Structures are given as C-alpha cells and as structure tokens.
Amino acid sequence: MTRQSEISVMALNGSPHLDGNTATLMRWVLEGCKAAGATVAWIHVVDHDIEYCQGCFGCLRTGACVLDDDVADLLSRLRAADGIVVGSPVYAGHPTAQLKTLIDRITLLNLYTDLFDQQCSVGVATSGVAPMRGVAKELATFFGRSVGVIGTKTATIANGYQPLTKVHPDRLPARAHKLGQRLVRRSRQQASRRAPTLTRLWIGLLRRTILRPLVRGNADQFAGILRIWEEKGFI
C-alpha cells in the first residue's frame, strides 16, 4: 500500500444496480478523489460469489475465512487500497443483503485484528424517504478510519422515486467532491499521525481487556488471530 504521492481509492458498491443512485453519489465522491490525484477502481458486490457466513469460527483458527469463494480476493483488494468509498441503498434501515453478507463474512476478523486500520474511508447511503446517515456512518466505521459520510433521499411527494441526477440538492455534487478530496488528503497522512477515532479506541480497549485473555487462554482455537496479533504488534 503506497503512502506517498499516488493514492489508490477503492469504491465498494453494495447496491444491486451498477449505475443507480448509490453509484451516482459514490461517483461524485470519486471525482473529488481523482481531482486530488488519486487512482480509483470499483468493486460491485453483486458481481461476485459471496457465500453466507457459516459461523464455524474457522477464521479464528486460521486467520482467514475457510470458505472458497471471492471474499479473499475482495478483502485483498480492499486492504491494498489507501482509501475506501463504501456505499449502499438503505433497505429496512440497513445496508443491502449483498453487502451485509460480505460484512458478516469478515466481521470476526475485523473485530479481532482491525482489518482496515490503515485505510481511510467514506460512507455513502441513499434512500427513498428513510434516514440514511446511520447506515453511511456504520459502513465508514467498519471499512476504515472514517473521514466523513454523505447521503441523500431520492423520492419526492410530487413524482415519487427519481434518478438522483434529477432530484439531488443543488450543492450535493460539490459536497461529495469535497469529501473525496478530504479522503485523499487524509490518506496521504502517515497512519501514525492520524488521531484514533472513538470507535477504534473502544475496540482497542475491548481487545486489551477482554479479547486478549480469551485468545491467550485458548491458543489452539485462536491460532490464526495470535499469528496476526504478533505480526501487528498487538502482543
């Protein structure tokens, strides 16, 4: 992962639509990233084979999910990026099932090993009329050190659901553009210079006070986690 002039940003689109409202808003953020000198690439979750989590805890023993599908490759691509723009429409108050399935598959590894501790992130969410900021914040927090979130509603009383390009607030593209530029600026900073977020401070405390005794007391079950902790200097 580069930390100098060239910054790479990965867009993780959780929508079933490759060019829908969520992708449109993400694209505006990415335009800001590119204007700040970053290279960008896309992952559309619906294009990939992602099986449901089996709850087998194999990832704790081995340090990686034991299921054979596209998750390992997706995780490698996300962790190789300097910044992550992750977006989803809001379904029943949550991200899409497609994106949630990916999150489920890597939640334990993320909790124990802080998979995205080197990445800065932006959360994006769209909805018809439902609140969306909470979903955007949840996504940004999961996939890195959040530098901000953005969301918008895409339904009007007069016309119902509309393409975002027709119904967006006048300043929304500019706000998204600035957020993308901020993501690149923060990604250029050395990780050691970034102030820890409250979420990461809390997870660090959880790891030291509860998870560390659990892992050390069950070394066979947590062999993979112990190896990663040693590599990261957590122990």
Q: Any idea what the shape is?
A: globular
The CATH C-level class name:
Alpha Beta
CATH topology: Rossmann fold
For the record, what is the CATH homologous superfamily label? Flavodoxin domain
Uncertain regions spanning at least 5 consecutive residues: none
Q: Which band does the percent of strand residues land in? A: 15-25%
Helix content: 40-55%
Largest sheet: 5 strands, parallel
Radius of gyration: 18 Å
Number of domains: 1
What is the averaged pLDDT score? 92
The total strand number stands at 7
Give the strand order of the largest sheet, numbering strands 1, 2, ... along the chain. 2-1-3-4-5
What is the first-to-last residue Cα distance?
A: 23 Å
Would you mind describing this structure in some detail?
The chain is an alpha/beta fold and 235 residues long. It has one domain (8-232): Flavodoxin domain (Rossmann fold, 3-Layer(aba) Sandwich). The chain is built from 9 helices and 7 strands. The protein has helices at residues 21-35, 58-62, 71-80, 97-113, 133-142, 164-167, 172-188, 198-217, 223-232, and strands at residues 8-13, 39-44, 83-89, 120-127, 145-153, 155-156, 160-161. A 5-stranded parallel sheet has the order 2-1-3-4-5, sandwiched between helices. It has a two-stranded antiparallel sheet with strand order 6-7. β1, α1 (21-35) and β2 form a beta-alpha-beta unit. α1 (21-35) crosses α7 (172-188). The two termini are 23 Å apart.
